[in-house]
């Protein structure tokens, strides 16, 4: 019975990814990733499919701890949760040893819109940037935390930024507005973070052909969009020309790239948030 439910959820997940392969659905997915950055890409897809308007999900007991309760008649959102299991196995020497195996189980969560009760405090992430224009603050923060040398430069028409993979440095077009500079800096730093974490390797970028290059651009622009959306700046009008590349690939590839987008976005967000805490 349990295995049937798991298979059903994975089937729903795959169907959801297929449905994503249109421009508007891509925007929904990356917007949802910005809201749920600590969830796996698969769980984000499940939340989106079951509750497209979701903004904050938690289990029943967690809502009770926060002084809220689930409204009568609301339907739970089903996602996967890790469930480590310790098993005794026989190793190559013939000795018994305990080995931890990571399994997954289906759990129920509900969105804040499905609950009533005490008002929730504003998330700290929204406060960390102060009262300045979002683009100006993001640009300032990204400049401060940029992990590689960078400079403003006069680039070729249509080129907004460049991450030089061989010598790990960034150039940003001096002709851009502040908001565009911030988005582009996030994109180029994302290239670096993807490269050093092995999500987009130098070999792939230099010798992997057009598909590998497209994947790198999707990861960087997707992560930049999630990062900017997380801090309140909508770059969808520009970003989704990049992520539309997903439509040329199978759902399995979309899932793989989606995980990379989320991992790099989290690294970007944490880079800025840690810096903000240091100067607070």
How is the topology of this model organized?
Elements: H1 2-20, H2 23-35, H3 41-50, E1 57-58, H4 60-65, E2 68-70, E3 77-90, E4 96-111, E5 115-117, H5 124-127, H6 134-145, E6 150-153, E7 161-164, E8 169-173, H7 178-196, H8 202-207, H9 209-230, H10 236-243, H11 251-279
Parallel strand pairs: 6-8
Antiparallel strand pairs: 1-4, 2-5, 3-4, 7-8
Strand-residue proportion: 15-25%
Counted beta strands: 8
| Domains, number | 2
Largest sheet: 3 strands, antiparallel
Give the termini distance in whole angstroms.
Answer: 52 Å
Task: Give the count of helical stretches.
Answer: 11
Q: Give average pLDDT, whole number.
A: 79
Strand order of the largest sheet: 1-4-3
Q: Which geometry do the CA atoms define?
A: globular
Series of H and E elements: HHHEHEEEEHHEEEHHHHH
- The multimeric state of the shown protein is single chain
